[in-house]
Amino acid sequence: MIGRTKLAATASLVAMLAGGVAQAQSLAELETAAKAEGRLSTIALPGSWCGYENVINTFKAKYPEIEYNGLNPDAGSADELEAIRANKDNKGPQAPDVIDVGLSFGPAAKDEGLTQAYKVSTWDSIPDDAKDADGHWYGDYYGVMTLVVNTDLVPNVPQSFEDLLKPEYAGQVAMAGDPRASNQAILAVMAAGIARGAEPGTAAAEAGLQFFKELNDAGNFVPVIGKAGTLAQGTTPIVIAWDYNGLSWRDSLNGNPPVEVIVPSDASLAGVYVQAISAFAPQPNAAKLWMEYLYSDEGQLGWLAGYCHPIRFNDLVEKGAVPQELLDKLPPAEGYAKAVFPSLDAVNANSDAVKAGWDSVVGADVVQ
């Protein structure tokens, strides 16, 4: 009888929290409901991205009762939204509970009804311009677009986007994603446009597409998604990627081959990513608990250890919560001081223009 009473109470709590009142409950009650669900499904979180391997492992150690299910780690932001659409009526393990997408994809997902509102307990320390007022999406971390170079194969390291057009880099330059679907690659096009003096938005997209057309026509562009393996193997000895990815690849390769990560002298573009919970999450309480963890001091410092600047970075520094050894591992401030943070409207306009124009202007089919 006692067991049935406890089971009924747990079921009632799960239903109540799933109904959207989790913020009114304690963390302990949310933990109970999440453990009762027993699983968390994420998508597009490779271990080398932003320190996610340690972030995920710490969460799993903290909540061993919750099975961690990582879907399609190499997916792009557009793939994440499609996974929600495709699994609206599916409560199985292939349906993602949460997404981590580029800034422009958060509002788009909300407008399409693909997200649900939830405000983490540290909500007030997230800058207002980096979150949806209703709690449908919220910035998690940001980085700067860089050139990641295998210096065994490229001894004369390029210092700018314009350098990449030089004949010496024939068959060497790649992007870290498909610009028709990957936020990272879409913003790489914007960065190239900014390097040519264009304003963030449609103008930068058009200038950036022209740059990549020239790069492709010159035979310098490699239409393969660049990552640590292709960088090391020499398939893509120069990859345009976020600083945290390049620095993580550098560390993982441990000098074999040696890698340099360069903030281009003609463009320093910062990009914000956002988190959101699927409106159709099979495990909504586990999703909320995951968000509470990510936006706690511990979760934020986990991203910082992976070279990402967490969205609560200023708050953590002001509180003295960032260990000095972490601060000492961050790249030099030069190159970051001039970083451009494009507005949401500019990011959206760039995204639409790049996805619409890549095939017709550049004509390179980027593949895995």
From TrEMBL:
Q: Which organism is it from?
A: Pseudogemmobacter lacusdianii
* A Pfam family it matches: SBP_bac_6
**Position of the signal peptide:** 1-24
Keywords of the record: Signal
- Protein name per Swiss-Prot or TrEMBL: ABC transporter substrate-binding protein
**The keyword Signal appears for this protein:** yes
Superkingdom, natural source: Bacteria
